[in-house]
Give the backbone structure.
Amino acid sequence: MAFIDWSALGRLDWDVLVENLLYRMYDTDGNEVTVFEGTGGDGGRDVVVDFANGTKQVFQLKHFPGGFSGGFVKRREQIDGSYKAAMKHDPDIWTLVVPENLKAGELEWLQKLVKHPTPSAKMPSITKMGRTELNNELAKFKDLQDAFERKESWDDFATKWNADRRIAPGTPSEVQERVAHTQEAIDAGDLNWTWGISTIKGMEAMVLQPKHPRAYEVSPVSLHLAADPAQMSPELLESMRDVLEFGLDGTISLPPEAVHEFTVKGPPFVAESSRHVGIEITSPLSPPEQNQQVTIELKSKAGKVMASHPATVEHVGGSIRGMSMRLSLCNGAGRLRLKSPQDNVRPTDVGLTTVLEHASAADARDLFEFTIDLFETDGFEIVLPEGSRFPYNSAGMGKSSITMEHLREDRDFAVDLDQVQSAFRQRFSIPMEAGPRDRAVIRTLRLLLDGRRTTIPDVAEVQLTLSGDEPGEILQAMMDGEASQFWWPMSTHKLVAFGRVFELDQFVVGAPEVILVNRAEIANEYRQRLTEHKAVVRPRRGGFFSGFAPEYLLEEGVVPVLLTPWGLPSMFEPGDGPEISS
């Protein structure tokens, strides 16, 4: 491997190659490497390494061909000034990097350089890197020198890549060797960028990747898309605005007829232009804020907190028109999408999506509650765990009385279902469709659990087995055609909702006024002195019987008087007749 003549490099090539080398040397084992842009002053530091053990090393790059002695002795003033500036950053080690090995006098001067204490009173050690150190370190990273010297043109590489693809894979070690050889050839193509070999959706793909943090600055790559909106659906146009203008995550697929021209500008190996090709644009991954737990505080116009709800950050992004965020609510039952314009004048575009297919009743209840709170307040703040607050104006959200009514109905149904599921130990996802009868059954069960007397769906008559050869007082009154109060204990009763059976034990059923449907038949049986009778009883005014659990009697022998209606909007509720006092 030939050594590089570091002194012959131009200033920009020198900076890029040394920065890359230092980054490769130290970006391991938990170290943090920071490369600073020197334009306008870098404060005596071009590269800083914060080692995992707490040590800080500052590198100062000086592109001084010919050294800093003889006719270049004034360069020592620049070195001394950079050293003094670097001390403000409290380093443990300060390293001078130059393109040549130091002459004896230069090394002696550097060793005698007056040390300036750091803010923490450290006296940092002074080290140097010259041609020998640079070449030895560069030898460990072959792709850096290969890329710098451009040993292989991209046309040659493409030919080689296609040829390699035709080689039949052998053993795993042979395949691994071929992949490593191919990647090595790829890395040698450019000093700043490389291609990563990958597969996306079953297709071979090459992903452009930076080889160092400043690749975007020293060798920028840009994409230019000219598209025809007339060839796109309104939904596709909206998705493009979300991703390209606000940084929302997502994937955009543009058909060839919509793409007038697609151009990539940058280094020769990547620059190209195409017309009428299909384009798929995928937003980048979310930053570290993803999965962070936050609190959403909903506020009144006066700034009073009216409600608060927990949420999880799924995505944070930004682009030319503003910032975006997507939050997960209620264990994934809902997603809140925010698009905030940069001007902060227009209200935040708030979108709420429900994902109830696998949600529990409790999560659905919390989501409907959040949605109601969101509609009923004028703004909200997202509060981070450390206390930072980000206000949003949601006053522009559209709502209607019909929307609010439906939300409250759904919220109440979720409340009912959660309580019923807990009591009967039946856990299942909230049904995507809940018909009137199923909702009535769930509301009935909840009211019964609360100790109320309420209408029992579908119980329009009760069949009783009576014994004895003389009718009782109440039965005789019913046989005479009089309406009588009637309450009858039942050992068990089953109600069905969403195909699931909910069984009630020790159940009391009845009505304030009932009639005997088969009174003539029963009267005939008594005349014949039969000892067993099948009596059929119905509420006098039609409708269904009501019922309650016996442990919720107001006092011994007293029936809960007031009938609690289902209270389900737009749903007819058959009653059980007039109320009674006892």
